[in-house]
Amino acid sequence: MKKQELLKLMDSELLEKLYGFCYARTADSQEGQELCSEILLALVKAAGTQGELDRPYPFIWRVARNVYADYARDRRRRSEAFYQGDPEDLLPLVPAPEEAEDDCTELLNTVYRRIAFLTRAYREAMIWFYLDGMSAAEIAKRQNASETTVRQRLFSARKKVRNEVEEMNEPANKPVALDTIEFYMFGNGNPNGNNPWETCTRQFSRHILWVCRKKPQSPSEIAAQLNVPTLYVEEELEILTRGLNGKYGLLRRMDNGKYALNFILFDRDVTEKAQDIYMEHLPAVSDILASFIEANREEYLAFPYLNRKVDLNLILWQQLHQMADTFADNVERILSEEYFPQMKKPERPYSVYAHVANGKMYRNGWDGVTGSHVCGYSSVSVENIYTAHVRPHFHCGLNLSTDLPLQLALRAIRGLAAGSLSEEEKEPAARAVEEGYLYREGDMLYTKILVNDMKDQHRLFAITDRLSHGYFEEPARIAAGKLSELFRREIPEHLLAEWRFANQLSSLPLMENLTEFLIGKGLLTPPADGIGAEGCWMGVARQALHPLS
Q1: Count of CB atoms within 10 A of residue 294's CB?
Q2: Phi first, then psi: what are they for 548, rounded to 5°?
Q3: What global pTM score does this model have?
Q4: CB–CB of 527/449 below 8 Å?
Q5: End-to-end Cα, the chain, rounded Å
Q6: Neighbours of 86 (CB within 10 A)
Q7: d(Cα 111, Cα 108) in Å, to the nearest integer?
Q8: Whose CA is closest to 459, among 248, 328, 330, 299?
Q9: Of the candidates 293, 268, 338, 321, which has an alpha carbon nearest to the alpha carbon of residue 479?
Q10: Spacing of C-alpha 325 from chain mean position
C-alpha cells in the first residue's frame, strides 16, 4: 500500500493498542497520552511522504518504538528518585550542610519525601491542606469523604511524618538502589496485544512483583520494603494490574485493597525441586521412548507425506515436541483427575508464568502460522519447533504472502524447474536451499521440509499420541503425587487454579534432555549449523485447479 493510505488503518482498535503501548512505558495516563500524540504526529508526517509499504503494521510499530526511544532519552522524571548502582557512590557528591539555612532546607526536603511515602488519600490531604491552602470541607468534597475522615487523615499523616522525620533514618536520605532481578518468562496463547510482560520494563516493576510473590501487599507496605515513595509505587501498581489489554496484568487487586501476584513465579529453590521431580524419571522415560520409536519405525515412514522423499530423521524432529510433551501431559492428566479436580483452567487469550533466572534457560518452542490462497493452495499452515539444536525459521506473525523462500517451497512440492526461476527468484531460491526448505536434484528443486495434505492433518501425530495410553503411567503417577504436594505448599491459594503453568515450568528440562538422549542413541541428527529442514513442516489444502497428486 502507499504511505498516503497509512491513516486509513488508524481505527479505534489500533489507537487503543498504541495508547496501551504508551501507557505501559510512561509514568501516568497524561504522559501516556502525550507519547501517543507524538507517535500519531509522526505517523501523520510519514503519511505525507512518498513510497510503498509492503507491511504497514510493522512499519507503524517501528515508528512507535522510534518515537518512544526519543521520548525516553528526553525524560528524566525519575532520575533523582531511582539509582540502580551503589548508593554509597553518590554520597560523596552530596555537599555537607554549612549553614543553618541549609539544615532547614534539608529538613524541609525530608518532610516532603516522607509525605511522598504516604498512601494516596493521606498524601493528597496533606498537600491540599498545607501546600494548597484548601479547607477540610473542600478536601472532603474532592475525596468524597466526610470532614471528620479528612481531619483523621491529616492527624494520622502529621503524626507519621513527624515521627519519621524525628528519627531521621539514614536510608531516607540515600538514593534508592535496586538490585538486579531477572526472570525467565514464558507464555501460552496469543501474545499479540495480550502479553502483560510488556508492561514490566523496569527493575522497579520486578521488585514490586517479587515483594508480592508470597502474600498480598498494600502500596505503603511495598514502599516501606523498597524505600520508594508511595506515589511511585501506586503508579506502577496501576500499570502492572492493568496489563497490556486492560484485563490481565501481572498483579491483581484483592478485595482488601492489597496487591497480589497474578501469575506463577517460582524462585530458584522451588524451580530446582520441581524440575528434579521430572528429571528423576528421565532414564525410564527415555528408554520407553526409544523402544517406541523402534517398534513404530515403519509406520512413521508410511505416513502419506507429499514429499518426493522422506527420512525418519525429519519425521522424528517433527514429532519430538509432541513426544516430550506426552509425559508431561500424562502428569497433568493425573494432577487434574486426582489432585485438582475442581479447579478449572483459566480462560484468557494469553497466560504467563516465570521463574527466577538460574542460568538454565531452556529455549524450546513451537510456532505456527496460516495463510489462504497462497501459491495456488486454498489453505496453508506452516509450523516449526526450536530447541538447543534447532534454530527457528520464523515466529508467530510471519506473513506467508511476502515470504519468498516459503512460497518457493510450496511451488516445489511436485518439483520446480530451476530454469523457470526469474532473476528475482534466484537469490531467494538459493537461500531456501541453504535454510533447508528446498533441495536440488539435477535441474529440479524439491521441497525438503515435510509436507502433508490438510485432509491428513488430524492424524499427523496419531502414532506419537499412543504414548498417552499407558506407556508412562507409572512414572507419571509418582511425579504427579510429588508435584501436587510441592504446588500446594508453594503456590499462593488464589493462584492454585494456575497449577498447569507450574507443571509446565517443572517439565521445562524434558525436551532438551530427551533430545540429547535420542541424538546419543543415533535416532536424531541435528542440522549442522542449527538451521535446516529439521523441525519444520507444512500442510496444504487441495484446490480443484491445483490438485496435489
Answers
A1: 10
A2: -90, -10
A3: 0.66
A4: no
A5: 36
A6: 10
A7: 5
A8: 299
A9: 338
A10: 20
Contact 183, 355 (CB under 8 A): yes
Residue 268's contacts (CB-CB under 8 Å, 6 or more residues apart) are 355, 356, 358
Q: How many CB atoms lie within 10 A of CB 26?
A: 22
Interior/surface letters 201-235, b for 16+ CB within 10 angstroms, e for the rest: ebebbbbbbbbbbeebbbbbbbbeebbbbbbbbbb
- Alpha helix (H) residue ranges in 117-243: 120-126, 136-143, 147-167, 203-211, 219-226, 230-242
Residue with cell 511515602: 117
Amino acid making up residue 403: D
CB 453 within 8 A of CB 306: yes
Residues in the chain: 549
Instruction: Output the average pLDDT for the chain.
Output: 85
* pLDDT bracket for residue 102 (50, 70, 90): low
Which whole-number Å values give the CA distances from 326 to 50, 59, 321, in the listed order? 53, 40, 9
- DSSP state letters, 232-287: HHHHHHHHHHHTTTSS--SEEE-TTS-EEE-SEEE-HHHHHHHHHHHHTTHHHHHH
DSSP 449: S
**Residues facing 82 on adjacent strands:** 176
450-506 pLDDT, tens per residue? 999 999 999 999 999 999 999 999 999 999 999 999 999 999 999 999 999 999 999
Strand partners of residue 151: none
- Element spanning 441, H or E: strand 438-441
Tell me how far CA of residue 227 lies from CA of 94, 178, 465, in angstroms: 19, 10, 53
CA distances to 183, 216, 418, 432 from 442, rounded to whole Å, are: 51, 68, 9, 16
Name the DSSP class of 310. -
CB-based contact 87:174 (threshold 8 Å): yes
Instruction: Report d(CA 218, CA 239) in Å as an integer.
Output: 15
For position 381, what pLDDT does the model report?
96
The confidence score (pLDDT) of residue 165 equals 54
Q: How many CA atoms lie within 13 A of 72 on its CB side?
A: 13
Instruction: Compute φ and ψ for 532, nearest 5 degrees.
Output: -175, -160
Maximum C-alpha span of the chain: 94
Tell me how far the alpha carbon of residue 35 is from its chain's centroid.
23
CB 300 within 8 A of CB 312: yes
The H-or-E segment that residue 540 falls in is strand 536-540
Cell numbers for 514: 530427551
